[in-house]
Specification:
Elements (H helix, E strand, L loop, with lengths): L1 H18 L4 H20 L6 H7 L4 E10 L5 E12 L5 E7 L5 H17 L6 E6 L8 H15 L8 E4 L6 H15 L19 H19 L8 E5 L3 H12 L3 E7 L2 E4 L6 H12 L6 H7 L2 E3 L11 E4 L8 H9 L4 E3 L8 H9 L3 E3 L1 H4 L2 H15 L5 H23 L1 E2 L2 E2 L1 H19 L4
Parallel strand pairs: 3-4, 3-5, 6-7, 6-10, 10-11, 11-12
Antiparallel strand pairs: 1-2, 2-4, 7-8, 8-9, 13-14
Helix pairs in contact: 1-2, 2-4, 2-16, 4-16, 5-6, 7-8, 7-14, 7-15, 8-9, 11-12, 14-15, 15-16
Length: 450
């Protein structure tokens, strides 16, 4: 029987890869996931319904639409928009919108599938989706960004709703973009709805939402160190990126007594051997959130090392927090981290470490937390924002932080429960995959074939 189940699971894997050979990223995620859950499925008969397992990888709906809009010069521009509504077995579709030239269906399917596991792990009533457009806000002025966001909303608003699909932000979509999309959606629907999270506080947003992914990541790090009997205070941290996740991760790391040494953007990396101070962080937040400047300006102002050629992983550290984008930390970077004394890697971005890099971490006993577990703080606080919008009652920041810590603790427990060991540490990747799978599978089984 065991061999039969293994053969069927391998057949599912081959079928997905052969039917969409152009979607290499999504196929790679499916391959990795099935490898992680296969031993669990073969040993547990109640999780051997192959029909349900096949449906795990097939989105409920893929929406693709044209976005035509006029820029400030009156010239028509054309972009392509997407929404991959992966599953609503656990709640309304939930996941971010990404505005970036690299956006395509392969990336969005991979992100939406990972979102389904992440949202399942939280224990909250959240389905999974991902979407966006091949538009880069950095290339346009404020008025053009607003025009594009309104055009996006006009093409997409019929698919949103507090019980249907509740998007949030992602790369290229921050509080500003969400505000424009949310406002225009309200105008088109002639109602004030809870269709989006990540809104400005004055528009019904949550006080902690901008910080939540980063704070959750640091809380998960603390759970890991506590469980593995490691001292966290005073450790050195290298962070990639300089967006919301990276900068608020830096903020929380400083609060926790850690020494942050690096920040980066597409132009290069800043290295502060003596640590990034609160003053430097405040400067960088204004630089990035208000002026939308380059990270090199931080190095220039405070006489720090700046390199266009290096990555944060080229510098010594105890902890690595990849917070920029997917596949930014490769096998050779993992080997650099090993040589530079790193003991833990916690993903702040969505799947920033390649499969080969993760294999290196596991081989050399570096603690590794996948983003589907460690960066679930963002979607968790989005769920809290949805609850606040539904009741019209605002939670205090103390209550939000308490609930966020509890959620990250729950996710950590799920990872430990299902992951087993890899070397001398818990296998957080395996635990996250199986933990997310179990809850999602049970809900789909309960709801029948659909």
């Amino acid at each position: 029987m065991e061999n039969s189940i293994n053969r069927e699971l391998n057949k599912i894997k081959r079928s997905i890869i052969s039917h969409q050979p152009e979607q290499e990223i999504f196929s790679g995620v499916v391959d990795s996931f099935l490898n992680q859950i296969q031993p669990f499925v073969t040993k547990n008969k109640e999780y051997q319904n192959l029909g349900i397992i096949k449906r795990l990888f097939e989105p409920n709906r893929i929406i693709q639409f044209r976005i035509s809009w006029l820029n400030e010069k009156g010239k028509e521009e054309l972009n392509r928009g997407y929404r991959v509504q992966f599953t609503n077995a656990l709640g309304p579709y939930k996941g971010g919108l990404r505005f970036h030239p690299s956006v395509n269906l392969d990336i969005l399917k991979f992100l939406a599938f990972e979102q389904s596991l992440k949202n399942s792990l939280t224990g909250l009533q959240l389905g999974a989706a991902k979407g966006g457009a091949d538009f880069n806000p950095a290339d346009y002025n404020e008025q053009d960004v607003m025009r594009f966001c309104q055009a996006f909303a006009a093409s997409f608003y019929t698919f949103t709703g507090k019980n249907e699909d509740v998007p949030a932000g992602d790369i290229g979509v921050g509080e500003r973009e969400i505000g424009y999309i949310f406002g225009y959606t309200n105008k088109l629907k002639d109602s004030f709805g809870g269709d989006y999270t990540g809104k400005n506080y004055f528009s019904g947003g949550s006080k902690l939402r901008p910080q939540s992914t980063a704070y959750g990541c640091l809380y998960f790090l603390a759970e890991m160190f506590n469980y593995n009997n490691l001292k966290l205070n005073g450790k050195t941290v290298n962070i990639s990126g300089s967006g919301n996740v990276a900068l608020y991760a830096c903020e929380k790391a400083l609060d926790m007594g850690l020494k942050v040494q690096t920040l980066s953007d597409s132009s290069g990396v800043v290295y502060a051997k003596n640590g990034i101070s609160s003053e430097m962080l405040d400067f960088t937040m204004k630089l990035k959130f208000e002026k939308r400047g380059r990270i090199s300006e931080l190095a220039e102002k405070y006489n720090l090392e700046f390199s266009e050629d290096k990555k944060p992983w080229n510098y010594p550290c105890d902890i690595a927090l990849p917070c920029a984008t997917q596949n930014e930390l490769e096998k050779h970077d993992a080997e650099n981290l090993k040589e530079n004394g790193c003991i833990a890697v916690v993903e702040g971005a969505n799947m920033p470490c390649t499969h080969d890099a993760v294999k290196v971490f596991h081989k050399i006993n570096i603690l590794y937390a996948p983003g589907k577990a460690s960066n679930a703080g963002g979607v968790s606080v989005s769920a809290f924002e949805m609850a606040q919008n539904s009741t019209g009652y605002r939670w205090t920041i103390e209550k939000l932080e308490k609930r966020l810590k509890e959620t990250m603790h729950t996710i950590h427990d799920q990872c430990v429960k299902y992951g087993g060991k890899v070397g001398k540490h818990p296998n957080y990747l395996k635990g996250a995959d199986i933990g997310g799978f179990v809850r999602l599978y049970n809900a789909m089984r309960n709801q029948g074939v659909q």
